[in-house]
Design brief:
The protein is α+β, with helices and mostly antiparallel strands. It has a single domain, classed as TATA-Binding Protein (2-Layer Sandwich). 29% of the residues lie in helices and 41% in strands. The chain has helices at residues 2-16, 38-51, 138-153, and strands at 31-34, 57-59, 64-70, 77-78, 85-101, 104-121, 124-135. Strands 1, 2, 3, 4, 5, 6 and 7 form a seven-stranded antiparallel beta sheet that branches. It is elongated.
């Protein structure tokens, strides 16, 4: 009987243990210089985000484009191995367009990602929290590529 109780206890404890691994920040390209005008780069960015129907907050005077509420796809952020069920992925992107010279435009992309995790009971979320995740560089690479494509197609 004692063996059975120890075995059941061991199975219950093992069922609660997870292979949790925290997300890790990666070294990614966040800044790129474009040989173009400020107006052309700004226009390429705004056009690309408008085509995708992204909500934008624009501050042209300070060169800031904010994409406040996005959902990122699996693989676009380092999530580690979560210790609970993943319910939601969220991202915010801030882009700074600066003009060190009239024909050299610097674009800096700051991506903030997080995921919502929940413990569940009978398939229903009971306890939820947010955990920061880290961009893998896919989002930034796509934005830089679209700027280049739009600048090239406008010539």
């Amino acid at each position: 009987m004692r063996f059975l109780a120890v075995t059941i206890l061991g199975v219950l404890i093992a069922g609660c243990v997870t292979n949790y691994s925290p997300p890790r920040p990666l070294v990614i390209e966040k800044t790129r210089v474009f040989n173009s005008t400020h107006d052309a780069v700004w226009g390429a960015l705004v056009s690309y985000f408008a085509e995708r129907n992204f909500q934008m907050k624009l501050d042209r005077e300070n060169g800031l484009i904010e994409l406040p509420s996005l959902i990122y796809e699996p693989g676009e952020a380092s999530e580690g191995i979560p210790e609970a069920q993943l319910f939601f992925r969220s991202a915010q992107i801030n882009i700074v367009v600066a003009s060190p010279s009239s024909q050299m435009i610097t674009v800096q992309i700051n991506t903030f990602t997080k995921m919502q995790l929940c413990k569940t009971e009978f398939g229903n979320p009971t306890n939820c929290w947010w955990r920061d995740t880290y961009s893998t560089g896919i989002i930034e690479k796509e934005i830089f590529q679209k700027i280049s494509e739009k600048l090239h197609s406008s010539k």
